[in-house]
Amino acid sequence: MDFLDFSSYDSSTWSTFLKDNWFVLLIALLVLFLIIRIVKTVVKWAIVAVIVLAIVLYSGYSLDDVKQLGTKVMDSGLDDLKELGEKMKDSAQQQAYDAMLNEAKEAQYTVNEDGTYTVSSPSIELRGTAGSDEAELSVKGSPFITVKVSELIRTFVNQAKQNG
C-alpha cells in the first residue's frame, strides 16, 4: 500500500489548495456521498474514482504523479478483486453443494428434447449433457455457472433419477 505514503506530498501546496478551493471540494464531497448512497453497482466506484481523479488533477499534481498513484492502486486492487471473485465463486459452489445434499430426496430428473437433462429441486437447478464432465448450476434462481461434474453432482443426479 505504497500509495498511502504521504511523506513526499507538499503540505503547503495542499493547504493553499484547500483554502482556495474549499467550496469546490465541499460540492465534490456532497456529490460523492450522494453517489455512494444512491448508486448500488460497480459503476458507483467508477464515478467516485473519476471525481477523485478530477480533484487531484485540479489540485495541481502532475499527470505523472497521478499515473504512478493509479498504477499502484490498480496493481494491488486487481489482485484483491481477483481473490474476492474466487472466494465468492467458491462460496456459491459450497452453498450449492450443501443444498444438493439437503434436497437430493426432493430432486426431479427430466430428459429434454435436445438430449440434455435438467435436475430441479426447491433451490437448485442443474442442466447438463449425459457423459459430459461439465454442467450448468443455478442456486435459488441465480445465473447459471459452469461447474465440473463431481462425485457429489453425480450422486445428486442419480438420486433425482431414482425419485423420478
Characterise this structure.
This protein is 60% helix and 15% strand. The protein is of the alpha+beta class and 164 residues long. It folds into two domains: 2-61; 90-163, no CATH class. The chain has a five-stranded antiparallel beta sheet. The longest helix has 41 residues, at 63-103.
How would you describe this structure in keywords?
15% strand; five-stranded antiparallel beta sheet; elongated; alpha+beta; 5 helices; 164 residues
Please render the helix and strand layout as text:
Blueprint: H1 11-20, H2 22-38, H3 42-58, H4 63-103, E1 108-111, E2 116-120, E3 124-129, E4 134-139, E5 145-148, H5 151-163
Antiparallel strand pairs: 1-2, 2-3, 3-4, 4-5
Helix pairs in contact: 2-3
Q: Nutshell version of this structure?
A:
By secondary structure, the protein is an alpha+beta fold. The protein has helices spanning 11-20, 22-38, 42-58, 63-103, 151-163; strands spanning 108-111, 116-120, 124-129, 134-139, 145-148.
